[in-house]
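On clarity, I found the account of how folds are encoded harder to follow than it need be. For illustration, here is how one protein appears when written out as sequence plus C-alpha cells.
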Amino acid sequence: MSSKLRLEHDHPAGVALLAEAPARVAAAVKGLSAADLAWSPREGHWAIVEHLWHLRDLEVEGFSVRFRRIMMEVNPSLPDIDGEKLAIERQYIRKDGDQALKEFAAERERIVAKARALESNELTRTGNLETVGPITLADLFERMVHHDREHVETITGIAQRILERRRHGRP
C-alpha cells in the first residue's frame, strides 16, 4: 500500500479516515437512480450497486469479524473473502444499493466506536489473514482505509461517467 498510514502511530487520524468513508460513498452516489447504480461502464466491470454490496459484505462479514476475533482470540486464523464469488452468488446487481449503503454505514459506525476506545498497545494484537499472513489490528485498519479509498475512487469515477452521459443526452 503506497503512502501507508501507520495507525499505530496516528490512531485518531486513522479512525477519522475510517469514519468518513460511508459519507464519501454517499456523496458520490447522491442523486443517482437505481438504474444509474446498476449501469456498468464496461462488460465485466462492476456497477456501483455491486461495489456498494461488496463494501457492505466485506464490512459485516470480513472486517468486523476480523476485528472482533483479533480482540478476543490469541492470533486467530482469519479466512479471506472472495468478493467476486459473493457478487455472483448473491446477485449484487439485482439488489438495492441504498440498503447496502445504510448497512455498510451502520456497521462501520460500530467498528469506529470500538476503534476509538482502543488503547495504542491493542493495535499490536495479531491475527493470521489467509493469503496475507500475520497482521496486526493496525494493519487491519490500514487495509480498511486502503480498501475504502479504492472503492470510493471507483464509485466516484463511475458516477462521473453517468453524469457526463446525461449531459450528452445518453441514457
Summary: Strands lie at 77-78, 126-129, 133-136. The first helix runs from residue 11 to 29.
